[in-house]
Amino acid sequence: MEQLTASMPLIVFVMIGTVAVASSILVVAMRNPVHSALFLLLTFLCVAVLFVMQKAEFVGAVQVLVYAGGIMVLFLFVVMLINVRHLPDERVLSNFWKGGFLVGLAVFALFVTMVRPGVYHDENPNKSKLSTVRDRVAINSTKNPGRLGHKRITRHNVNSEAVANALYTDYLVPFEVASLFLLVAMIGAIVIGKRELSAVEEETAPDYMLARVETEREIKEAMSA
Amino acid sequence: MPEIDAWLMLSGTIFTVGLVGVIIRRNMITVLMCIELMLNAVNINLVAFSHRLGSLEGQVFTIFIITVAAGEAAVGLAIIIQLYRLRSSINVDEARELNG
Asked: pTM for this one?
């Protein structure tokens, strides 16, 4: 029983890792983008489990919220918006798929040669920092009553708090830059995705769009008449 | 707990799958999904080293990478929608007006 408990992380790692790799291969292999998106969701969830295994609970939660919640919804929205069945796209592989497999093989061989067993061997693991916070809290001083004193306390198993400490002290400037980046990305996505028909666009616009504009115009005329 | 080599190999495998997908697929949405796969593989790597070294930097970087991935997905999908409106196609090989 003890042996089983000791080898449990390895079993979970092998299972979740196999599912992650298999579903990532299926993301590439599926013809239908909806299926690809669903397998991508499975991969994200498996990776979240792997994060939690490595004492990165907060990152795991962010992975589930942002990737599985936000980005996947965005992908599925676009896949549904673009009606894939009506695309005249019979060939799935691009013209240089042989080169692609060759590059993949080369990169994988590079990884295998770089990550030999024991290269990054763990002699003296120190995992205390990952989920421990040291604080000074104000208390009523025992020596001189009526004045405030300090007490040092250490809390364990608080990964989110440790990450927040690092994020809001050492990495405050990158954090603010990231918020600015998100604002710019949002404005950019809105501006790029906006639909307007100028005179030039009307020439190059596909038929279905012109038909829709025509219908809207007819409806407007019928309403005003 | 598995050694760090196992984590690195897992992340390398997922990264390779994503890279091959970016090169061989023609559907733009799938290509974007493969880029997300590669970013995720890098995240596994960073978190594994954070665990190995007992330092929080890897996790902080992972959070920043997730942020950038969200922005990239939003802008990329907006570009794909706009391209689809112009061309009625999301084929990578057909969007080659910018080549020299």
From this structure: 0.82
